[in-house]
Inverse folding.
């Protein structure tokens, strides 16, 4: 019974995130608080490991900055993480890519065959008063068909 309660509590704090895998090149949009100001900083690198399950899921992202390897461990469903963008999907044969730490130069972030892909967790929110493109396509043909039928009826009489 306790597990059911914890699952319901965890579902409330889940955020919709794209499918992130080990070997992917990602951009993390992190909220940075400096004094009273808040800004978003982008951290771009390769996902070298994924740990945990549910709301406790963490990803480790590695990049090379000015010749020095930098890694960030970020909780996937944290409010600090504004959004994730998956830029390239790398094919990895292992679940942990810690061997990238020993590499130098261009090879340090190369993971198998990389395919260009773009996934994000942004949701397009329509502005009030605007019609979504899907609704617009459905409504327009119906109005045109009705108008043509009325014209044909007037011509016949």
């Amino acid at each position: 019974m306790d597990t059911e309660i914890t699952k319901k509590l965890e579902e409330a704090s889940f955020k919709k995130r794209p499918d992130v895998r080990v070997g992917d090149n990602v951009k993390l949009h992190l909220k940075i608080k400096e004094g009273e100001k808040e800004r978003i900083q982008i951290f771009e690198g390769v996902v070298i490991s994924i740990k945990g399950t549910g709301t406790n899921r963490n990803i480790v992202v590695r990049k090379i900055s000015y010749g020095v390897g930098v890694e960030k461990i970020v909780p996937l469903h944290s409010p600090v993480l504004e959004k994730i963008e998956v830029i390239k999907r790398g094919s990895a044969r292992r679940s942990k890519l810690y061997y990238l730490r020993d590499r130098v130069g261009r090879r340090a972030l190369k993971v198998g065959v990389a395919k260009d892909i773009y996934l994000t967790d942004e949701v397009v929110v329509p502005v009030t008063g605007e019609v979504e493109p899907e609704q617009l396509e459905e409504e327009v043909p119906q109005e045109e068909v009705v108008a043509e039928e009325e014209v044909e009826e007037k011509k016949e009489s």
Remarks:
- The longest strand covers residues 37-51.
- The radius of gyration is 24 Å.
